[in-house]
Amino acid sequence: MRMPAIEPSALSDEQRVLDEQVRRMMDGLRTPFTSTDENGALIGPFPVMLRFPELARPLLEWFTTVTNGSVLATRVREVAILTIGSRYGAAYELYSHSGVALAVGLSKSVVAGLVAGQRPSALTSEELVAHDVAACLYSGAPLPGALYRCAVESFGEQGTAELVFLIAQYSSISVILNAFDVPLPTDAE
Which InterPro entries does its entry note (predicted)? Predict the structure, then answer.
């Protein structure tokens, strides 16, 4: 762990504002995973963000902009997030979003397959499109026209844009998690 959690009592005024913003965001999501340690300090990508609030604020604003008023189904979003997390091997992202994916109705076998970097056959047609778009964009190649058209047919232009921005966001988070060697909480399997 390169950036340990910061106890709430040790936060600067600027960090405290960001800490409160993150906690409000997490409370609104009702997350089925551990996001604080035994002292109440934020864990996961948040200790890194708290150390660099000027860099984190725009990232969090971007997240809330894409999340608020989402047109994508929650399951579709989680398929894309887990696909990206598996490609990067971002342990905390896979831990946290596996819990979210299970909570929104993806089966254990589908979640396990996505975490393992597979393309589970039990995905719906829209979930398959989300997986394929995420996997393709992760590879660094342009999105083929046929897959782009399939995404627009499945999600509309707004939903396709949201999917692409979501993939970009979770690619960014994966990079942050990996660069700073963010550990899993003690309750992770």
Answer: AhpD-like (IPR029032)
